[in-house]
Amino acid sequence: MKFTPKRRVLASLLGGKSDRIPATSVAGCGGTVTVDMQETVGIYWPEAHKDPDKMAKLAVASHELTGLESVRVPFDFVVESEALGCEIKPGDKKIVPQVTKHPFEKPEDLKMPDDLLQAGRIPVVLEAIRKMREEVGDFLPISSLVLGPLTLAAELSDTANLLRWTMKKPDYVEKFVDFATEVVIRYGKAQYRAGSDIVEVGEPVASASLISPKMFKEFAKPALIRVAEELGGIRVLHICGNALPMIPDMVETGFDGISIEEDVDVAKIKPLVGDVKILGNVSSKGALVMGDPNQVEDESRKALEAGVDLLEPGCGISPITPIDNIKAMVKTATSKSV
Fold first, then answer.
1. How far is the C-alpha of 147 from the C-alpha of 151, rounded, in Å?
2. Which H, E and C letters describe 90-103, residue by residue?
3. Closest CA to 60 of 240, 195, 202
4. Which of 3, 31, 178, 232 has a 20 to 30 A CA-CA distance from 67?
5. Cα Rg of the chain (Å, integer)
6. Rounded to 5°, angle at Cα 325 from 59 and 204
């Protein structure tokens, strides 16, 4: 049986039979595009954040230049925040856009746009997904990113404020998270309709470095359960850093896969996840950026032997990652059969 990348990736995520573990960049808080890729194809940020043609072409180039078995958009983490009224610094070819002003100080300030899917750069991302689908057909899987409810709530209110509210104004947190959850669901469903095979929910503010497992259960988990239920399609949850204390709750949210960084011992969590698939956990900030291809191959091999279901950068691909290092991760996966 011949496997296309799409068939291989979807089989690996859904528990089907595959010829080997795929090498992908389905999830993570980083993107999939580097400075070298931009220079090779002559398409650059920040223009590619705003132009669906350039966004789609740059995303597909990430596969063509490295062999990665998936393509993903958007490249930045503030599309929803900008659409809802946050002020954004556009960045450059090395730095993605960032929120510079969080205008929402209380729940009463929150207002859903009359047509969310036409707000800000959301239409750009959706059109880029449609163009990617036309380009790659059924050969490559497309994944797309939405912010997790807690993270979007933090972007709207400022993370420091949100964390302070967990202790002093928990009702504020609940109302911000409820609002954000509705945004996540509407936007995620639209991504499926545009052509995404997989929706990744990136939830870095739910990291154990920022909140406790108790806070995760109280503020993040119920919203993530609702997101998983209402999205309906294939969905993956990413949490940055040492997510080990959250793993049992992550599994119970109902996502098909969980994306983890190198801080989490894959072999240790394997007995805890049941049918939920593990994506990761090659170091995005370590081996992939600072190492050489041999080091990346060693770390990739360890991740495969530990039991990852999809071999991936632990938190996406940094813009300064050498292309040869990404190729080394792909080479390690393609040389091993299940």
1. 6
2. CCCCCCCCEEEECC
3. 195
4. 232
5. 19
6. 60
Q: What would the two tokens of residue 253 be? A: 């949210």
CA–CA distance, 17 with 258 (Å, rounded to integer): 19
Amino acid identity of 270?
K
CA distance 98 to 100: 6
Q: What pTM value is reported for the model?
A: 0.96
CA dist., res. 276 & res. 234, Å (int)? 12
H/E segment holding residue 199: strand 198-202
The pLDDT value recorded for residue 137 is 97
Strands ordered across the beta sheet of 277-282: 71-73, 142-147, 198-202, 234-238, 257-259, 277-282, 310-313
Distance, in Å, from the CA atom of 223 to the CA atom of 203, rounded to the nearest integer, reads 11
Q: Tell me the pairing of strands 257-259 and 234-238.
A: parallel
- pLDDT for the residue 338: 45
Taking 50 as the pLDDT cut, the residues of the chain under it are 338
H-only helix segments in the chain: 5-14, 35-41, 47-50, 52-66, 79-83, 122-136, 149-157, 159-168, 170-194, 213-215, 221-231, 247-252, 266-269, 287-290, 293-306, 323-334
Paired residues of 246 in beta bridges: none
d(CA 314, CA 207): 14
The domains of the chain, with CATH numbers, are: 5-334 (3.20.20.210)
Residue 117, number of CB atoms within 10 A of its CB: 16
